[in-house]
Amino acid sequence: MRLVIAGIGLIGARHLAHALEMPGIEVVAVVDPSLSQDHVPHFATIEDVDLAADGVLIATPSHLHADHAEAAAARGWHMLIEKPVAHSLEAADRIIRAADRAGVRTLVGHHRRHHAAVARLKDLLDAGVVGAPVLASMIWAMKKPDPYFEVPWRAGPDGSPVMINLVHEVDLLRHLFGEVVEVAGFGSNAQRGAARVESGAAILGFAGGVSATVSFADTCASPFGFEAGTGENPNIATTGEDYLRICGTEGAIAFPSLTVWSGAADWSQQPGVRRESFTPNIPLVAQLAHFADVCAGAAPLVSAEDGRKSLEATLALEAAVAPRRVAA
């Protein structure tokens, strides 16, 4: 696969590093108007690229995704678009229409679906190890350093942890439990006082009857979060702590340890406990390998339409947790 990478910020730089090391992937160009690299030819815009390519990885700020996707689709490039697929439903629809017009395929970068531990969790739930899922409880609580917000677009509402981080969690919960039908919540900006939500809690109701609580903050020095628990992000310290617990009619499971409690008929009995195993992988690498298959004709694991559904649920969550007042 001949690949163009558009955007080499925090996540784009990680994609570039992996892609340069992967057999079967040739990075033919990088597009970024401000950041530079010296591995491959560099261009300021997608339109400037004068090399042949099969696909593009769009890792630019989300409010630019639709513009860049339209330009890429016009070139006939298949697209891997970082999450969220776009910043609005209207922009997501532009991406879907552009891909349909050009006859190209789109994969949305919800890379946690490619994580081996997530795949094992999904298999265990589908196999009924906890019976019918009823409840889920999730805590994502990290403390972002102040320099993180020195990037201009992160300083305002677009720097909300909902659209940057919780979109991952919403997509994961959709992957496990199906479609979100109800959202309620409360949010605060009491610590930094910026014009964005920085902490809060939400309740998500799913069509199948599962209720999930999601507590979040980018102001807490805690060990709880997907990245901290799994160690999948080199920019975030690894703690190995569980951040998600799922309870069902016949047991419970904690993630990412994959600790399973089962065998108790009711509260009078002691459940058995065990830990399930899996073979670790690098999800960004697995996602790139899948994108190569998508460019060759495979169906995407996360289509643009699927990414739009996660975006819609995340936007509803963001609206539910919008701070009622700006902190003094």
Automatic annotation (TrEMBL):
Domain (Gfo/Idh/MocA-like oxidoreductase N-terminal) ranges: 2-110
GO molecular function terms attached to this record: nucleotide binding
Domain spans labelled GFO/IDH/MocA-like oxidoreductase: 119-253
Listed Pfam families: GFO_IDH_MocA, GFO_IDH_MocA_C3
Protein name: Putative dehydrogenase
Gene source species: Litoreibacter ponti
Gene3D superfamilies assigned: Dihydrodipicolinate Reductase, domain 2 (3.30.360.10), NAD(P)-binding Rossmann-like Domain (3.40.50.720)
Coiled coil: none
